Amino acid sequence: MPLRLFRRTTKTDIETETETSDRPSDTNTGSATATAERPEATPSEDSHGEPRPARKRRRSRGRRRRRPEGAAQPVHENGSRATLERERSPEPDDDRLTEPAAFHAVGVRGAGLRAIGALGFDQPTPIQERSMPLLYEGRDVVGLAQTGTGKTLAFGEPLACSIDPRRNEVQGLILLPTRELCDQVTDVMAHLGDFYGFRTIRLVGGKPINRDLEALERGGHVIVGTPGRVIDHLKRRTLSLARARFVVLDEADEMLDIGFAKDIDQILRQAPLDRQTALFSATMPMSISRLVWRYMRDSERVEASPAQLQPVDTVRQFYCEVASRDKFHALEHLHDSMDLGRSLIFRRTKVGVDRLTEGLRRDGIHARAIHGDLRQSERDRVMRDFRGGKLEWLVATNVAARGLDIPDIAHVVNYDVPQNAEEYIHRVGRTARAGKEGSAITFVGEWEMGEWEAIVDRVGDDALEHLDIPTRFD
């Protein structure tokens, strides 16, 4: 194999709380539930139950001016957009629906069509075609699809359609494993909220808790957050899910892999039993099946077409059989002889990530670890260094495969064979993006042949190339 393939790619307690809110909680929260329903208006609320701004925050003694129609909307300090509450636009006649007409065929109407058109989409993806009609019918849905297949819009538009913006209470909840994914989903939901008239609040760790409190005090209709921070607010009684009729678990397998199982259990127990639940996941391990059985009602399973669940053609896929004890030597061989450059190295466990990173750093290789146990500030610093070229290798668990914006990854190395084909496709998908070329190399150990055979069955033997790597005894 020509070596040119591996060309180098040229003060307070509040602050302490913010660094731990994204982590899974270690204890259960008994019956700490927030107030279910807003009582009759108090002097601090208007007749519609909306909280009035405190006097000390008013900047003038004159009457508050109305915001001109079409003016830019304010943004919450926690990152979510604060749209004005307004009546839902009436649906236009079917004859006036021109584009995107294909979304009209899957059940999108009125404001939803205008919102999707503004995003520039004209054709639904396979997962949208299969899941949106069911969600509009009020069905529980289990969606199997990888990142980048349009899942956010698949659940976001039906959720937006279910919101009544006149009721200033949390009516929808979207849980995600990472802060980065929350940022992406919040952007989409805020865009939909501009058309439907609801407000979205983002609740994630790594930010001062007082920003969350200000946004929650103002009120919102949809919560997008990580389980750790949502649990934090449920314990504080600053968040109520008693009126949350639509709950979404996105990247559910990743949330369970990080360790959010107990948090998810506590959160779902505080939402109404008759809620609608949508669960989206790249893989369907037994832990997901148990979650579906426990918390979903007569759910319908949908998945993207097989063509959507394949590595792109611009990535070259290599594999080599190497004994588990020789994998570290094989990785160093790749570094020394093939000049891998900026690469992403995947391990199955957080302990494995830390041990591999320590070994590489001892041997003078610029490598850093990233996984769910790191504080958000540490993760941000690692990502800045990696994007800026200060690091050669990033050693990661699957958390880096979803949500993190890591452009221009030249190579991916599966130090451990992924547990299934979907996970393999997610890992490989970190390279060869936007039409660029890349490569993926998988080390297949003596105890991993079963998992590898399942991957070969999915991607096809003709898509894989064998790579010879000398052992330490050669």
Cα distance spanning the termini: 18 Å
- What's the total number of strands? 14
Q: Outline the low-pLDDT stretches.
A: 1-20, 26-77, 79-98
Residue-averaged pLDDT: 78
The number of helices is 16
Shape: globular
Strand order of the largest sheet: 3-4-2-5-6-1-7
What is the strand content? 5-15%
Q: What structural class do you assign from the helix and strand content?
A: alpha/beta
Outline:
Helix content is about 35%, strand content about 15%. The chain is an alpha/beta fold. A 7-stranded parallel sheet has the order 3-4-2-5-6-1-7, sandwiched between helices.
Structure, explained:
This protein has 16 helices and 14 strands. It is an alpha/beta fold. The chain has a 7-stranded parallel β-sheet with strand order 3-4-2-5-6-1-7, sandwiched between helices. Helix 7 (209-218) links the parallel strand 3 (200-203) and strand 4 (222-225). The longest helix is centred in the middle third of the chain and has 18 residues, at 179-196. The two termini are 18 Å apart. Residues 1-20, 26-77 and 79-98 have low confidence and may be disordered.
Features:
seven-stranded parallel sheet, disordered N terminus, 14 strands, 16 helices, alpha/beta
Explain the layout of strands and helices.
Layout: H1 13-18, H2 101-104, H3 110-119, H4 126-136, E1 141-144, H5 151-162, E2 172-175, H6 179-196, E3 200-203, H7 209-218, E4 222-225, H8 227-236, E5 246-250, H9 252-258, H10 261-269, E6 276-281, H11 286-295, E7 300-303, E8 315-321, H12 327-338, E9 343-346, H13 350-362, E10 367-370, H14 376-387, E11 393-396, E12 411-414, H15 421-428, E13 438-444, H16 449-459, E14 464-466
Parallel strand pairs: 1-6, 1-7, 2-4, 2-5, 3-4, 5-6, 8-13, 8-14, 9-11, 9-12, 10-11, 12-13
